[in-house]
Design a protein that fits this description.
The complex is a heterodimer of chains A (114) and B (110).
Chain A lengths: L4 E3 L2 E4 L5 E6 L6 E8 L3 E9 L2 E5 L6 E5 L5 E5 L8 E8 L9 E2 L3 E5 L1
Chain B lengths: L4 E3 L2 E5 L4 E6 L6 E7 L5 E8 L4 E4 L2 E6 L4 E6 L8 E8 L5 E3 L3 E6 L1
Parallel strand pairs in B: 2-11
Antiparallel strand pairs in B: 1-3, 3-8, 4-5, 4-9, 6-7, 7-8, 9-10, 9-11
The chains are: A mainly beta (114), B mainly beta (110).
């Protein structure tokens, strides 16, 4: 089975722009979670989707949003980018019905905001 | 927050030695997981231990869980240079999300 894929792998944006990141989970996985990783804050949970519904959300401002499609692929969007949004954004999928199970991570999208 | 806290933050050992890293958390959990991350890439799941388990093995990995002390340890035996990575514990408790610790950076030198 192909692993979790994320596109693009690298992205450079300027402040005020918006960005959309994409994640394709492992075939058959219905739960997709997103995480932000920075040197200062570590790994922080953004949100989790299951069957096109957001099931859980972390403590991020409304500029961070996401969605999941009927084929389980997921996108996250960050509007009005700030310098502090520079981070590695990781997507993970799981085979179980919740994100409490083993998570399979993609390689991440490295976002740099200038 | 029930975020896991790893100890030590950094660990440097020689190839062939054992590496032990610890994780402490704050509230009751459903399970605890350990992940490895190489050089800012995606995380790889190592092992999951449920709250009613005390010890689990997988290859050269041994994980223990002490729910009374709210702590877990990961032991890597006979370490190799390829084990050089950051190791994170992650806990699941109330709510449907995984909360990661701060990580231990392990360096295995030849």
């Amino acid at each position: 089975k192909a692993g979790v894929t994320q596109t693009p792998r690298y992205l450079i944006k300027t402040r005020g722009q918006q960005v959309t990141l994409s994640c394709s989970p492992i075939s058959g996985h219905r739960s997709v979670s997103w995480y932000q990783q920075t040197p200062g804050q570590g790994l922080q949970f953004l949100f989790e989707y299951f069957s096109e519904t957001q099931r859980n959300k972390g403590n991020f401002p409304g500029r961070f949003s996401g969605r999941q499609f009927s084929n389980s692929r997921s996108e996250m969007n960050v509007s009005t980018l700030e310098l502090g949004d520079s981070a590695l954004y990781l997507c993970a999928s799981s085979a179980g019905t919740s994100s409490l199970d083993e998570q399979f991570f993609g390689p991440g999208t490295r976002l740099t905001v200038l | 927050s029930q975020q896991g806290e790893e100890d030590p933050q950094a660990l440097s050992i020689q190839e062939g030695e054992n590496a032990t890293m610890n994780c402490s958390y704050k509230t009751s959990i459903n399970n605890l997981q350990w992940y490895r991350q190489n050089s800012g890439r995606g995380l790889v799941h190592l092992i999951l231990i449920r709250s009613n388990e005390r010890e689990k093995h997988s290859g050269r990995l041994r994980v223990t869980l002490d729910t009374s002390k709210k702590s877990s340890s990961l032991l890597i035996t006979a370490s190799r240079a390829a084990d050089t990575a950051s190791y994170f514990c992650a806990v699941t408790g109330g709510g449907n999300k995984l909360t990661f610790g701060t990580g231990t950076q392990l360096k295995v030198e030849l």
